[in-house]
Design goal:
By secondary structure, the chain is an alpha/beta fold. Helix content is 50%, strand content 13%. The chain contains 14 helices and nine strands. A six-stranded mixed beta sheet has the order 1-2-3-4-6-9, with helices on both faces. Strands 5-7-8 form a three-stranded mixed beta sheet. Helix 11 packs across helix 12 and helix 12 runs parallel beside helix 14.
Length: 303
């Protein structure tokens, strides 16, 4: 088994047909760092290679499923990398290549021959919702939350799964607002398969996983391929390409650059609180003026 730093995976000791993939950065709400997307893909590959495994359950350690990309690293930090170029004019193609790689690694959950179930407690938000929605099935705690708040500024969901899972009407509502919904609402909207009280979540997911695991693996693989092919025929790959390009633009246009400068100058919690509060987000010339002000402050601080 590969040596992972952000997650672990193993067959359930009592039920070897069920593999459990645990996102394991609880001190950071299982936030996505540089290593996690590749480790998800490697963990799925490990499970694919185990003949006894019929289904993969994806869950998060600690208080929640996954809080999205680690903004202390990608937002508040000063690193210069393809998905946030600061030392040179933005080049969209390295950005696209970097984020498309992450998307493809999350999509290992969708492409693999074995059914995948996202078991969501706490929150699966921003990039964490990408991971959850790349799974075939979604079971949530009643009070868990799912959504993509960065659609308000500094993000576009690169997996483009919201429309395929919700339909255009509901997807537009969540993309336009950046709101989150609870497990109960996710079931009402047809996004989640089931919702149960948090204390019953493990049992509910295991019951579903065991029901699936009793089916021959070849049959599961064929049924999954048929459904996935319908989504591909509807243009999933093309939608992901467009969303990934747009994601880069949202991080490098005036509004996106303002968000990062706010995070760098005042801390990522300040930027996130502004983004999610409903307070108008600076745009255009207003954003450019605030960027100049924040950059001057950072320079004075030696940042």
């Amino acid at each position: 088994m590969p040596d992972f730093t952000t997650l672990c995976i193993e067959a359930d000791a009592a039920h070897p047909r069920v593999a459990r993939l645990l996102l394991n950065r609880p001190e950071r709400y299982n936030a996505i760092n540089e290593a996690m997307p590749g480790e998800i893909a490697a963990a799925v590959a490990w499970a694919e290679a185990q003949p006894q495994v019929h289904v993969i359950v994806v869950q998060g350690a600690g208080k929640g499923f996954c809080g999205g990309y680690d903004l202390a690293e990608f937002g508040e930090g000063t690193i210069d990398h393809p998905c946030q170029q600061e030392g040179k004019p933005w080049d969209p193609m390295p950005d696209y290549a970097y984020m498309k790689r992450n998307t493809e690694q999350f999509m290992a959950l969708w492409r693999c021959s074995k059914p995948t179930i996202a078991q969501v407690h706490g929150a699966a938000v921003a990039g964490g919702s990408d991971i959850a929605l790349c799974c075939d099935l979604l079971v949530m705690a009643d009070d868990a939350r799912i959504g993509y708040m960065p659609t308000r500024v500094w993000g576009c969901p690169t997996t483009a799964m919201w429309t395929y899972r919700l339909g255009p009407l509901r997807a537009k509502q969540l993309m336009f607002t950046g709101d989150t919904i609870t497990g109960r609402q996710a079931v009402d909207w047809g996004l989640a398969n089931d919702t149960v009280p948090a204390e019953a979540l493990n049992a509910a997911v295991l019951k579903l996983a065991l029901r699936i695991a009793s089916v021959p693996s070849s049959h599961l693989a064929m049924h999954k391929l048929v459904v996935n092919q319908v989504m591909l025929n509807m243009g999933l790959e093309q939608a992901q390409m467009l969303a990934t390009v747009f994601d880069g633009i949202t991080r490098h246009n005036p509004e996106g650059l303002w968000f990062r400068r706010q995070a760098q100058a005042e801390g990522f919690k300040s930027a996130v609180n502004w983004r999610d509060s409903g307070r108008p987000i600076p745009e255009g010339d207003e954003a450019r003026a605030l960027i100049a002000e924040l950059e001057a402050r950072l320079k004075a601080q030696g940042g």
